[in-house]
Design goal:
Layout: H1 3-14, H2 19-26, H3 30-44, E1 49-52, E2 55-59, H4 61-89, E3 93-99, H5 101-118, E4 122-128, H6 131-140, E5 145-148, E6 158-166, E7 168-173, H7 186-190, E8 194-197, H8 204-214, E9 220-224, H9 227-235, E10 240-244, E11 256-260, E12 268-275, H10 282-291, H11 297-305, E13 319-320
Parallel strand pairs: 3-4, 3-5, 6-13, 8-9, 8-10
Antiparallel strand pairs: 1-2, 5-12, 6-12, 7-10, 7-11
Helix pairs in contact: 1-2, 1-3, 1-4, 2-3
Amino acid sequence: MNFQQLRSIREAARRGYNLTEVANVLMTSQPGISRQIRELEEELGVDIFERNGKRLTGLTEPGKGLLPIVERLLLEADNLKLAGRQYAKGDVGTLTIATTHTQARYVLPTAISAFRASFPKVRIALLQSSPEHIAELVISGRADVGIATEGLSRFEELVSFPCYRWNHVVVVPEGHDLLERAQVTLDDLADYPLITYDVGFTGRGHIDAAFQKAGIGTDIVLTAMDSDVIQQYVALGMGVGIVASMAVGQSQAHGLRTIEVSHLFAPNVARLAVRRNAYLRSYTYSLLLQLAPEMTRAGIDAALEADRGSPVPEAAPLALVGA
């Protein structure tokens, strides 16, 4: 038994049993992957994968039981490497953060600047993506930390912690009729074409839920992942924008005005996530505690070691960002 065999098993399950993709990820040949899998099956005395001819089609019942063990072995191998680097090199290395554009653009610059002042020998790699892909990056070990508003708490392979609360705001061009309202309502917003985030991004779920609960239809004419893009199209007169409160610093540059609407949409909680049972280097703890100051290192360790599905206590009140 060797780690290459274990990686072949894990990646085959992750890549939908497509051995061409597995070979590309592991930088080897497809016949080599097939051989690694077959040799491990022969050593264990069971078939791990179901097959249709030479093609893998799924996990057998023994395979379903063995896959979590394979994942734990590989995780512990990664932890061993990280622990060795911690003792050998101290605070030297690369911290990879997977996050959304909104977090990277509007929230993280201050935190990363402070982090770099404390750990000048640590390089930062920012990977910007969707919440679902952010979770995948952290689970696979390609990112050390994930930061997003939506989705991270749904994955049992991850431990996620609340960072801060934030609200949505409305942005409109100077002189817009909505600026004359004492308090904007959902009906008021529904009278105009709306521009906001793609489904699954930056609290979009709370926007849709508010209108659905009120039984009010909307005309969402344009969606985007990027708050700046949304505001640019609002400035062009295409509609009324609904964006994250921390993203409105550039509104004046676009000739826009901001309307506070925290009474309309539920508050959002940004979360950060790491792999369950992962070994965290000292500078990773430092970033986590900076972003979630209500947590403690002991609390993080306890959450990492807890059984899957165990909830992480929500500390309250969380800081409100972009208010």
